[in-house]
Amino acid sequence: MGGWNALAIAEQLAQETIHALSVLAWQQSKDGQSGRNAPKPPEPPKGKYQAEHEARERSERLAAKAERHAARMARRTTRTPSA
Question: Where is pLDDT greater, at 82 or 12?
Answer without folding.
Answer: 12
